[in-house]
Amino acid sequence: MFFRAVINRVGRAVLPPSSCSAASKAAGAALRRCAQVPLKALSQLAGMPLARDQNGNVLIEFALVTPLFVLLIVGTLEVSVMFFTSSVIEGATVEAARQIRTGQVQESGDPITTFQNRLCDSLFNVIDCSEVKFNVKTFSSFGEVSMPIEIDEDGEIVNNGFTPGESGAVTVVRSLYRWEFMTPLISNLMPVGLGGHLIVSTVAFQNEPYDVN
Fold first, then answer.
1. In the prediction, which pLDDT does 134 show?
2. What is the pLDDT of residue 6?
3. Per-residue pLDDT, 116
4. Are the CB atoms for 98 and 119 separated by under 8 Å?
5. SS3 label, residue 173
6. pLDDT for position 7
7. pLDDT at position 109, please?
8. From the first residue on, what is the mean pLDDT of each consecutive set of 10 residues in the chain (213 residues)?
9. Cα separation of 207 and 192, whole Å?
10. pLDDT at 110
């Protein structure tokens, strides 16, 4: 109303009376059209579904997928390191067992220390040697071999002793190492045994003929 009154007053001052009414009508129509534009835009915006606005979808999807992807990569690396450690323990057990099979451990002044030193040297500091448990037992034949893994009340591995045996004896050497997973959820997916996930390496053989001086 205010704009229409201003336009009418200005029109009457600069236009003839015959043209004043026509200019006033034209100006009023223009104002009505301008007022209708934002109303149409608002009505269209109100009727538009919010799902059509896809700005930020990529960022949200990236935020959801990234933690799972990082967990998968880190878990894969840790499992790879675990299998590498298992291979190292296997090689160290075979090398230390070979010293018993040839009688070198039995011929030493301190058999258990000699065996442990050889086992630790073959681990190449990949893991802490003090965390590796080992059992050495002898049997009269391969058919009588039985060495179940024993766990105490605290969940620690029980050492069944160290008996390397004499010449020709059937001997079993076993090394055990407990692997603690650092990656979340990976420990729930990997198979576990007594006392957690154990890396076990076992070597069975018959001692070679040798003479202990």
1. 93
2. 44
3. 95
4. no
5. strand
6. 46
7. 87
8. 48 48 53 50 51 70 89 90 95 96 92 95 94 93 89 76 92 93 78 69 93 63
9. 33
10. 93
The conformation of residue 91, written as its DSSP 8-state character, comes to H
Joined together, the tokens standing for residue 29 give 């129509």
Angle, CA of 89, 120 and 107, to the nearest 5°? 110
In angstroms, the CA 198 to CA 176 distance is 7
Cα distance from N-terminal residue to C-terminal residue, the chain: 124
Planar angle of CA 125, 163, 82, nearest 5 degrees: 30
Per the DSSP assignment, residues forming a β-bridge with 173 are 136, 203
**pLDDT value at residue 141:** 92
Give, in degrees to the nearest 5, the angle at Cα 120 between 117 and 125. 145
Q: To which residue do tokens 């296997």 refer?
A: 90
User: How many angstroms separate the CA atoms of 173 and 80, rounded?
Assistant: 25
- Residue-level length of the chain: 213
Nearest to 168 by CA among 126, 196, 127, 210: 210
Q: Which residues are CB-neighbours of 138 under 8 A, at least 6 positions away? A: 163, 164, 165, 166, 169, 170, 171, 172
Look at the pTM and tell me if it is higher than 0.85: no
Residue 143's alpha-carbon distances to 76, 100, 139, 169, 207, in angstroms, are 39, 20, 9, 13, 16
Of 142, 158, 141, nearest to 150 by C-alpha is: 158
How far apart (Å, rounded) are the C-alpha atoms in residues 74 and 115?
36
H helices then E strands: how many in the chain? 6, 3
Cross-strand pairs, 193: 196
18 token code pair: 């015959």
Helix (H, G, I), strand (E, B) or coil at 16: coil
